[in-house]
Amino acid sequence: MIRLPVIERGRGLRSWVLRPVVSLVFGTPIPDFVKVLLYRHTFFGKPVGRYGQTVLRGPGRWSVGERELFGGLISLHNLCRYCAGVHCEIAGRYLSAPTVHDVAHGRDPAGAGARVAAIVPFLRRLSEQPDRIDAGDVASLHSAGLDDEDILEAVHAALLLEICNRVVNTLGVQPMNATQNRRAASFLMRHGYDL
Amino acid sequence: MVDPHGLRLRELAETVSGASGVLPRYVRRALASGQAIPGELGRLAELVAAGGTGVTEDDVRCLLDCGYSEDVVFECVVAAAVGAAVLRLRAVEELLASCRRGDPP
Fold this sequence. Notes:
The complex is a heterodimer of chains A (195) and B (105). Chain A has helices at 5-9, 13-26, 32-38, 45-57, 64-77, 81-95, 97-104, 114-128, 135-143, 148-171, 178-191. With 195 residues, chain A is mainly α. In chain A, α6 (81-95) crosses α7 (97-104). The longest helix of chain A has 24 residues, at 148-171. With 105 residues, chain B is mainly alpha-helical. Helix content of chain B is 71%, strand content 0%. Chain B contains five helices and no strands. Chain B has helices at 4-18, 25-32, 39-49, 57-65, 70-101. In chain B, α2 (25-32) packs across α5 (70-101) and α3 (39-49) packs across α5. Chain B is elongated and about 55 Å long. The two termini of chain B are 22 Å apart. At the A-B interface, α1, α4, α9 and α10 of A face α1, α3, α4 and α5 of B.
């Protein structure tokens, strides 16, 4: 149950019209985070969706699967089961589920390639101790062949989830089950995030 | 170097800070730029900035019982979450700029 009853109930025409449609698409009750995105859509749902579309689907130096992997592992790091479930599912469809599992849990850091292996520790460090990143981190990334643009793009994929994880965790959004994750992944792969 | 993704994040931060809402714009602006605010909402914002896992049902219920509206709480949560990202982006941008200039560590 979402901790703000007004979001649980929904408010406004958009919410009233779209909730049943989303339920039909997912074939299950509407996921909690979709309720959050529909609530005061122009205040949060729309601008965060545009940011998400740009950083996870727009032109970039990293593949969609790699960017989704960054989102999934940051979500795991932030203990956000909702976001981890769906972003790891999407990443797994592009990169293979075992690869994503092994990279995200640190079992095979190079499983998705040397570039991913180089950036993952930096993203974790940035998540945990943003005031502790330093020139040594950047030097390691540069020596692994990543330039500033590569670094910034990966950082943005992580930052999107830094935002969503906090909203989800704070508002008590419930994680989706495996079926919902699969359906959400298919939906987001087809339609993207700018909805 | 232009960072098109950064423009989108700043657009989100600007909307959260400047759109019509119930929490004063200067408070939302402070939160969305990663600054702390005083009081009970400040305590919530601090927990959000720390990841949100420390927030309990009771924390939110207490704020509502104290007279804060659900919209105020929602705006505070979103602004503090955006602030956590803005703060991290600023740290990376400053670090990359410093490395480009060759500043001593």
